[in-house]
Design a protein that fits this description.
mainly alpha; Arc Repressor Mutant, subunit A; 3 strands; about 10% strand; MarR family winged helix-turn-helix transcriptional regulator; MarR/SlyA-like; WH-like_DNA-bd_sf
Length: about 150
């Protein structure tokens, strides 16, 4: 069985491990800064960003879970914690009675509006300030292509 594995070349392994290290360190640093400066976890921020990205400020639980790549139980527990802090509310779906929505509250909007400038500043200082415009375009192209493939296979 081991002979059928298409092992990574040294160059592929170096690139992959560099990418993983970047993702882990950048994500960790951004999460700590968010928590320290805005009292939002990275998960809170992700939920609030997804809710503010839609005009009505609400999304079905299942759509939000898919967008965040979260399991149903994680979604349910995290939204309950955020609702307990007044950042979101759960709304019943009146159209079909089966599903529910997660909606951002005024407190949630205030929290994301306060955190967003801090987040942008951190993204600039930790990432954008260290890549050229051409490298940035390449990162975007590669990221979009891989995400598109992942979404096709979902």
């Amino acid at each position: 069985m081991e002979d059928s594995v298409n092992w990574l070349t040294a160059e592929e392994q170096h690139a992959w491990r560099s990418f993983v290290r970047l993702h882990e360190r950048l994500g960790g640093r951004l999460a700590r800064l968010l928590q320290t400066e805005s009292n939002l976890s990275a998960a809170d921020f992700a939920v609030l960003v997804n809710l503010t990205d839609v005009p009505e400020g609400r999304r079905r639980y299942q759509d939000l879970a898919l967008a965040l790549e979260w399991e149903k139980s994680r979604m349910s527990h995290h939204i309950a914690r955020m609702a307990g802090r007044g950042l979101v509310v759960r709304e019943e779906c009146l159209e079909d009675g089966r599903g529910a929505f997660v909606a951002i509250t005024e407190a949630g909007r205030a929290a994301i509006e306060a955190a967003a400038p801090l987040h942008v500043k951190a993204v600039r200082s930790l990432f954008l300030d260290h890549v050229t415009p051409a490298e940035l375009r390449t990162v975007a192209e590669v990221s979009e292509r891989v995400v598109e493939k992942l979404e096709e296979e979902a």
